[in-house]
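FAQ: What does the model actually see?

It sees only this:
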Amino acid sequence: MATKPIKRSWAEPFKIKVVEPLVETTRRHREKAIRAAGYNTFLLASRDVYIDLLTDSGTNAMSDRQWAGMMVGDEAYAGSENFYHLEANVARFYGMPFFVPTHQGRAAEHLISRILIKPGDYIPGNMYFTTTRLHQELAGGTFVDVSIDAAHEPANPHPFKGNVDLDKLAALIRKVGAKKIAYVSMAGTVNMAGGQPFSMENLRQVAALCQKHGIRLWFDATRACENAFFIQEREAGWGRHSIAGILHTMCAYFDGLWVSAKKDLMVNIGGILATRDREVFEKARNLVVVYEGLHTYGGLAGRDMEAMAIGMEEMVAYENIRARVKQVEYCGRQLEKYGVPIVQPIGGHAVFLDAQAMLPHLPREQFPAQTLAAAIYADSGVRSMERGAVSSGRDPRTGKNIYPRLELVRLTFPRRVYTQAHIDVTVESVANVHANRERVRGLKMTYEPQYLRFFQARFEPVAAMRKRRAATARAR
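And it is asked to produce this:
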């Protein structure tokens, strides 16, 4: 008698070799800690965090090969052997002949903004990213969102919400002229949209439009391997292509790219600026000496560059990228069972909670996403990140808060760090906050730095602020 085959589970393609102890804290301890941090999860001390899902930037677990590679770091000031290994791998995996190392991704954003942007220029892209937009603005440029409308709709299941709207891009070109567009910026995956990919076909069409008008096309390739994985899974004709092959094909459409190596490359520090444009390369190689260090180390130790080079070889392994994306998907699917509203489809590096849908009783000026992140931490010690009005900042012309359509909390999974049990704890905490959401009260900002306020801003519960103001009035 034939038996029905048993459905097989999958497991992470690695085993644990070194462990770092975690400390569980009490609710009272966490409430005191988040209050001291001004209800900003960025200002929490690491020792007060149980499961840290703040970011996947520099928080990944390196492999034994990467750790071994760090022991052969060539710390020569000029011409480090590790630089040449990294340079060769940039050409091998990204297809870019010219390369400048930087200490992290935003340093590369700074260089390319200074080189390509003139005051009054425009930079269209598939949704902004915080540091990228700031560097563009500091160089005198204006970012213009040309992402498809579906990217701003949390429940929309569009498989490629990172796509550029070609009509929006063409309209901007007609309005300001091709010469006023410094470059078109495409990110893959798009962080602020929920870790959403663009399709290869959309990229091809954007590249053709840029070529027609003589406009540069640049790639934020920080999470390009996740984008490649989604193309492999979702786009017709790409299912049999390798991650490395899809990555190489994507990069062939671009004039250059920048990478925060702290994500795909699974290292703790590092960045890349790479291009096929020799003139841009020469300018970058000159400027990196001013801001980062000599062009053969760019603010990095030789051992860091070696870890990056090895990480580049590991990032394209199908088993690694599949395990990474499927872990995030598991978290999202479990949250769905509890009715928690999340961004659809589930992204590559994080699950994004729809804070507006989760806390509809809070007005936007009380920062629902910031409030939700603080509430989750107080419930369990799980640290997440706001991605909404606080991250969006203020309109540079009016000074008023920008309220984006997406008001999200990001549960970001470092690569090769947490187990399924950690995900279950996270899910249960979010579900508990969701079940008791009417009790959550909003926040008011009490301190705001000039730039990138989400990193250092401080908040206070609205009720507490009202009580303090009333007490002050009585004292007068």
